[in-house]
Amino acid sequence: MKINFRGIFAGFVLTTLSSVGFAESDLLVGKWKTIDDRTGYSRADVEIRKKPDGTYEGIIVETRNIPGAEKMVICSNCPGNLKNKPFIGLPFIWGFKQDAKNPREFNQGHVLDPIGGKVYKGKARLSANGKRLTLRGYVGVSVIGRSVTWVKY
């Protein structure tokens, strides 16, 4: 019986490369600690998931209060069907698509400010090591907006 080592090696290389590519595309998926850009405190933990249509959404899984402030539990300022929903389970980023030219960038998303209740256009960029996410919400063009950085658990 003759063993085809070239075929086995080629199959191994293809399997390895395809799994590396798959892992690279899902660096956004997971649990993130949000950091409030105005106070420096972590306000919530968010779980980002990839939906079957290839877009990403983030759901609030835990909230924290800022020292000296009451913990908010209901999205009383949220628009439409999100109004008066609990923060836990609230989808507040959605529609993000991975950029084909730069897999660490995600565009065409929407960001809900759960405190103010406004929805903004959004884009995001992963750091080189995949441990930090810079999320930008903006109105019209991205120069008119605000950026926050999240840390991956």
From TrEMBL:
Domain DUF2147, residue spans: 30-151
UniProt xrefs under Pfam families: DUF2147
InterPro entries, alphabetized: DUF2147
Superkingdom of source: Bacteria
Protein's UniProt name: DUF2147 domain-containing protein
